[in-house]
Write a structure and sequence with these properties.
The structure is a single chain. With about 350 residues, the protein is α+β, with helices and mostly antiparallel strands. It has 2 domains: about 250 residues, Calcium-transporting ATPase, cytoplasmic domain N (3-Layer(aba) Sandwich); about 80 residues, no CATH class. About 35% of the residues lie in helices and about 20% in strands. The strands form 2 sheets. A 10-stranded mixed beta sheet has the order 3-2-1-12-11-10-9-8-7-6, sandwiched between helices. It has a two-stranded antiparallel sheet with strand order 4-5. A hairpin with an 8-residue loop joins strand 1 and strand 2. Helix 1 packs across helix 2, helix 4 packs parallel to helix 8 and helix 5 runs antiparallel to helix 6. The longest helix has 24 residues. The protein is globular and about 70 Å long.
Length: about 350
């Protein structure tokens, strides 16, 4: 919890387990009583400022409300209700999505139903539960290149909203001037989460007026229904037009723990003389932390970092800039290693 803003931390015992543990990450400047326990299996988040609707009394309650609604609405999961207990379980593309929905439900924003055109959220944070319907107008899918996913929805008041979650490097570049209120604090927390080996996402949104949406949706429909080789490129370009001028409301952090025996296995392979490579889409800080956790990296090892800078990625010829930058970094690293050996 950072300065009244919820930073979720979902803990999963292994990469193959469906069990989920949700725990508190305390990074608050206000250390009021945080001893309440929900008693819900798989959920042990303890912060009285957020539980039982207490977040309504926080000075930035509107931002917390939007954070929770993004968790509950921005996904492609399917709910399954147990007829005997009435409890919801979820079928989702990843355990992370399930973790977010479990957390949202325990904070009073339960994703309860999906139809062909809408999602329904049962909100219970001020009095009796209220079922709210969000009409899903568009889904902008996650891809490894986009590093984000968005949904365009219409709420019960008729307001069109873009809800977006993705890699912080992507979201931060798309923030509006008025959407950076929490940028500094969130960046600090994300760096800490990355160093702890957690997988992070930034959450954001913006309001869209009818005129803009109508014009954009026409272009999106053309791209969606095209059958040419450039369909994906067209979709990405049109999605970029909508995913801009965002307002940052917070971030999530997920721990995907190693299975038992992984560090010992990698250590044995290394001692046998095998060269081991790991391919990951995580942030550098997260990858390094996991490298130490699985015994791939050890204290005293020489580490060489090769990375692209933002200005290279957005240059007129990003591929050429990337090749030149990587080659230069490799040459410099080789010379440094050679000098140390000499």
């Amino acid at each position: 919890q950072g300065e009244g803003r919820m930073h979720g931390y979902a803990k999963m015992p292994s990469k193959t387990s469906s069990d989920i543990e949700l725990e508190t990450v305390i990074t608050a400047t206000d250390e009021r009583d945080q001893t309440q326990s929900t008693g819900v299996k798989g959920f042990s988040f303890e912060d009285t400022r957020l539980m039982d609707g207490n977040w309504l009394h926080e000075p930035n309650s509107n931002d917390i409300l939007m954070f929770m609604r993004i968790l509950a609405v921005c996904h492609t999961a399917i709910p399954e209700v147990d007829e005997d207990t009435g409890k919801c379980t979820y079928e989702a593309e990843s355990p992370d999505e399930v973790a977010f929905l479990v957390a949202a439900g325990e904070f009073g924003f339960e994703f309860s139903k999906r139809t062909q055109s809408s999602v329904f959220i049962s909100e219970r944070h001020s009095g009796q539960p209220v079922e709210r319907e969000y009409k899903v107008l568009n889904v902008l899918d996650f891809t490894s290149k986009r590093k984000r996913m968005s949904v365009v929805v219409r709420d019960e008041k008729g307001q069109i909203l873009l809800l977006c979650k993705g890699a912080d490097s992507i979201i931060f570049d798309r923030l509006s001037k008025n959407g950076k209120t929490y940028l500094e604090a969130t960046s600090k927390h994300l760096n800490g989460y990355g160093e702890a080996g957690l997988r992070t996402l930034a959450l954001s949104y913006r309001k869209v007026d009818e005129t803009e949406y109508s014009a954009w949706n026409s272009e999106f429909h053309k791209a969606k229904t095209s059958v040419g080789a450039d369909r994906d490129e067209m979709l990405e370009k049109v999605s970029d037009m909508m995913e801009k001028e965002l307002i940052l409301v917070g971030a999530t952090a997920v721990e995907d723990k190693l299975q038992k025996g992984v560090p010992q296995c990698i250590d044995n392979l290394a001692q046998a003389g095998l060269k081991i490579w790991v391919l990951t889409g995580d942030k550098m800080e997260t990858a390094i932390n996991i490298g130490y956790a699985c015994s791939l990296l050890r204290q005293g090892m020489k580490q060489i970092f090769i990375a692209l800078k933002t200005e290279e990625e957005i240059s007129q010829d990003p591929e050429a800039a990337a090749r030149e930058s990587i080659l230069m970094q490799i040459l410099n690293a080789s010379q440094m290693v050679k000098l140390e050996k000499d």
